[in-house]
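The instructor's notes for this session suggest beginning with a concrete chain rather than abstract definitions. Hand out the sequence below and ask the class to guess, before any prediction is shown, which regions might be ordered.
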Amino acid sequence: MEERDELELHNCEDCCDGDCDCNHEIEPERFSVTDEDGIEHHFEIIYELENDGKFYWITQEFFEGEDGEPIEDENESEYVVFRAEYSEDDDSVLYSVEDEEFEKVSVAWNKIVEEMLAQADDTEEEE
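After discussion, reveal the predicted structure:
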């Protein structure tokens, strides 16, 4: 999988029309999860997708420096998938996914990445 920096993951339909060239900065949505050993892990949502009627967050773990700012990680290409269920108040409850579910979501995610890369290639050829 290509590194995240090379992907345009911004969904311009959320801010204006589908042909948007706004190039504005969007603060990534971040959250923390504490594992069974009491260790806190920080994640950044890079994409949300629907697969088989369920919603999934494609995330990347990041590490905070002493100042609370994210530290650049050279191994950023790995991603973590959470299944997200929403309450009536739009609060999200996250669930870890098992291997089989992860594989299904990974296939859908890889297809989206391929489409984004192809679209980026088409845009570069037009310029």
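Then share the key points. Strands lie at 30-34, 40-51, 54-64, 70-71, 80-86, 92-96. The first strand starts at residue 30 and ends at 34.
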